[in-house]
Amino acid sequence: MLLSRTLRYLPAQLIGPLSQFVAVVVWTHFLPPAAYGTVALIMALQELISRLCLGWWSSYILRYAATFTPDMQERQGAHENAVLLASSILQVVVTWIVLAASSLPLTPDLVAAAVAFTISRSLTTHMAERARSIQAIAIYTVAQTVGPVIGLGLGTAVVWTYPSAAAALAGLALAQIVVLPFLWRALIPSHRLLLDRSNLKQALIFSLPLIASSAVGWAVVNGIRLIVEEVEGAEAVGLISVGWSLGHRLMSVVAMLVTAAAFPIAVDQMVRSGKEAAYAQVARNSVLLLAIVVPGAAGILCLTPAIVEMLIGAQFHTATLIVLPVATLAAAIHNVRLHTIDQVFLLCERPRVILYVDLVELTLTVAGCWFGLVHGGFLGACLGCLAANVVALALCGWCAYREGLRLPLLPIGKIMLATCLMAAVVTLAPSFPGRLGLAVDVAAGGGLYILAMALLFRQHWPQIRQAA
Fold first, then answer.
1. In this structure, which long-range contacts are made by residues 274-282, counting pairs with CB atoms below 8 Å and at least 24 apart in sequence?
2. Calpha distance 228→247 (Å, rounded)
3. Phi first, then psi: what are they for 69, rounded to 5°?
4. Which residues contact 322 (CB under 8 A, 6 or more apart)?
5. Tens of pLDDT along 273-306?
6. Cα–Cα distance between 400 and 423 in angstroms, integer?
7. What is the reported pTM?
8. For the chain, what are the domain ranges?
9. I need a surface site. Which of 65, 182, 213, 293 has the fewest CB within 10 A?
């Protein structure tokens, strides 16, 4: 079931994130560092605002939508309309307050574009989670692909002629607004507005720790931008954001290739068979996740010089060469924890554990990033963040182990062995210069890894063929 649904989710997990990745790369050739830094900060702030204002409801829907009976659907839809409307109004206010409190050079067009981008991005992301919660894969694919693809085209066309942060954000916002009416009509089974207090109370009881955890988690990932902006200014944020965003975006893309279907299956196991079956499913999910995240991170580390040389604008080269490898490792660790270990505490309805670990991680991130930036520049700041990620993974993993999660060590060891073989060949073998050389290295490394995995996991091939 996991492999079959993973393959059905694959187009959405490739097309949308690939478009966002291309935008990150292409815009380094059109936007100056200060404007790029402004876009990066506003996109990061959008994630925080979305988590605070709407993420709590998305988490509740993802966990409990499968338990809604047909009789509850219409009333639940009317309640959801009210929540989304109230959230949108709140996001306008919060976005304005956050922008006014920042040191960004605000103009009316930038504020308008930031507000439109924030609301449209938050609603589109929620609709994607809504579709995932009920396994509506076709609608999920539309939510994940149409906005980013159109946004890439519009945003690039606009910044080509008018290279500013406001233009880039406006292009992204317009693309998301275009697809929202279809998603709303397809997913929300009501045209009414009804605020159900009992439903709201249930959602808040479950999600309040997640609201705090989301805010803390956002600060863990994006705190480096805020610290660099405070110490060295917006231009430094633009320089460090390319490598930091690229590493995190690439690892998020790699992780989501296999995780979109994973958590709903674990929820289904929890409902049908209880805690032990759900944790066993999380353990199986973790093997599939590691099988793609570990070689993905290793490949980026081996090919960083070629990736930067071929894809990134010249003015960002030096900083990206320093930042990208560390950002990739930090993002890989973050995604492994987010998509496996944290899910244990969502399933057993103990989200406070995630919050406590996040608070430890945030404290270490701020201290390590600031100390590293002062004493070691961009590399020191990134290493400080990486150290915090490692400690949080170990701490959360220990808590999950005590709760009952058992990861299969033999398959994980096989994944590590195949990855080491791939990395050794890619690093030591001679390669062609230019884009052709990069393509050959990627193809050779990927092919060798697949071959090694096929030999090491040959007993599972009948299941894989059946899923395909």
1. 275/347, 275/348, 275/404, 276/404, 278/347, 279/344, 279/347, 279/403, 279/404, 279/405, 279/406, 281/2, 282/340, 282/343, 282/344, 282/347, 282/405
2. 17
3. -80, 160
4. 243, 377, 378, 379, 382
5. 778 888 888 888 888 889 889 998 998 888 888 8
6. 31
7. 0.70
8. 2-407
9. 182
